[in-house]
Amino acid sequence: MNNLGNDIEIAIVEKFRRGETSAMDRLYAAYANYLTGVCCRYIVHDDDLKDVLQESFIKIFTRMNSFDYRGKGSLRAWVTKIAINECLLFLRRQKQNTFVVDVDPPDIPDEEPDTEGLSGDVLTRLIRQLPDGYRTVLNLYVIEGKSHKEIAEMLNIKPDTSASQLHRAKNMLAKFIKDYKRYGYE
């Protein structure tokens, strides 16, 4: 985030501190598209995504008084964490045990996904096709930079399960990408 982004964060925080009615609108305008993208990586169905996004903003708005601005990017990191937690909460509610390792995983050879030449939109659509557990671990590990130990704690699974889910997610994603490049559809 550049200085302009830093100035936007400070302006939003100050508006909330002063109790200005435009604070929510300003925060929403600044982060709605970004948080939609974050939630999109975890939640497959658009109606569910909208619900999770709405719950995220409700929590953000109601907890702004507890937010402690710590410099450039801290507001963005804070709202991202809330959105991800809302996504995980939604997934847990949808399925009692979303993150169980497949008993009989698909026969997919080990390979790393070749994302070269893919747009972000295409890659996101392909990631959204992964099973919930695979997609969630992939996002937490690759995009959010969490360790398998951290993921295990977040999802109430073993670190080995997280590693296995990631391995299978990468292999399945590699197959999806290969098929997309070969046939041009998802």
UniProtKB/TrEMBL annotation:
Protein name: DNA-directed RNA polymerase sigma-70 factor
Residue ranges the record marks as coiled coil: none
Example GO molecular function: sigma factor activity
GO cellular component, one term: DNA-directed RNA polymerase complex
UniProt keyword list: DNA-directed RNA polymerase, Sigma factor, Transcription, Transcription regulation
InterPro entries per UniProt: RNA_pol_sigma-70-like, RNA_pol_sigma-70_dom, RNA_pol_sigma70_r2, RNA_pol_sigma70_r4_t2, RNA_pol_sigma_r2, RNA_pol_sigma_r3/r4-like, WH-like_DNA-bd_sf
PANTHER family on file: RNA POLYMERASE ECF-TYPE SIGMA FACTO (PTHR43133), RNA POLYMERASE SIGMA-70 FACTOR ECF SUBFAMILY (PTHR43133:SF46)
Entry's Gene Ontology BP terms: DNA-templated transcription initiation
Start and end residues of each RNA polymerase sigma-70 region domain: 27-95
Family to which the UniProt record says this protein belongs: Belongs to the sigma-70 factor family. ECF subfamily.
RNA polymerase sigma factor 70 region 4 type domain mapped to chain residues: 123-172
